[in-house]
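hey so i finally got around to running the thing on that chain from the lab meeting. sorry it took forever, my laptop kept dying and i had to restart like 3 times. anyway pasting the input first so we r on the same page abt which one it is
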Amino acid sequence: MSKSLPNILIAEDSPNDVEMVLAALEENNLANDVIVVNDGEEALDYLYSRGKYAERPAGLPIVVLLDLKMPKVDGLEVLRILKQDETLKMVPVVMLTSSKEEQDLVASYKLGVNAYVVKPVGFTQFVEAVKKLGVFWALHNGPPPGSMRRSL
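ok and heres what got predicted. didnt touch it at all, straight out
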């Protein structure tokens, strides 16, 4: 049985934050449509179907939830690469970060981020914020051109 393409790509290096994001998405039956990568380099490997993702199904995620501060390649550099690539620039990207720095916010929007969400400190608030993000991007927003979206 072949695996369907995930609708949501999460690039996050904090295992705790990944668990909370998945828990929030699971509440809306979206967790089975997610792939998690732990750094910016792995996110790019996934998006460009290279390395361990060379054999993944064709198509693009419906949204990328991208942490700003990650090892190897940070979120701003991943965003810069995505938005400069003709094939990937239409994929919506949401910065999901703990940074409240104005310079990070401004840099993200200058590079073409679709939304910038500061991770709430409390667990309940964090889960609620991610749940709203997942529902909007996976259920309400139209898929980017060329993506292979599975019906939910």
